[in-house]
Write a structure and sequence with these properties.
By secondary structure, the chain is of the alpha/beta class. It has a single domain, classed as Rossmann fold (3-Layer(aba) Sandwich), CATH 3.40.50.2300. The protein is 41% helix and 19% strand. It is built from 5 helices and 5 strands, in the order βαβαβαβαβα. The chain has a 5-stranded parallel sheet with strand order 2-1-3-4-5, with helices on both faces. Helix 4 links the parallel strand 4 and strand 5.
């Protein structure tokens, strides 16, 4: 049974690149265009990992992670922030919200898949 990864980014092209890499590695992918959209997709289905951007309209990535962690079904779901942000303060904010890893764009798909394989829930 394939593991499901939720990819949250306001850039359709970035979602596509991440999606292709993940599907190529055998994962199922659910896409969302911002934090609000992503919360709507957390409908009880099992999500093994979330990859989220930080800067998005409607609801940014850090707010989304905080909201997701309030949901009992997703409290322990690992989150990788994939963003152009590289300031320590932002990283600290992300970690405080519950993010397990921080990857800066542009990223190498192999590097992302390596992080995913280490963090994805069994």
């Amino acid at each position: 049974m394939a593991k499901t990864i939720l990819v949250v980014d306001d850039s359709a092209s970035l979602r596509q690149v991440v999606s292709i890499a993940l599907k190529g590695a055998g994962y199922d992918v659910v896409e969302a265009c911002d934090g609000k959209d992503a919360l709507g997709k957390l409908d009880g289905r099992k999500v093994h990992l979330v990859i989220s951007d930080v800067n998005m309209p409607n609801m940014d990535g850090i707010t989304f992670v905080k909201e997701m962690k309030k949901l009992p079904s997703y409290k322990f779901t690992p989150v990788v922030m994939l963003t152009t942000e590289n300031q320590e303060a932002k990283k600290a904010e992300g970690q405080a919200a519950g993010a397990k890893a921080w990857m800066v764009k542009p990223f190498a798909p192999a590097q992302m898949l390596n992080a995913v394989s280490k963090l994805v829930l069994p």
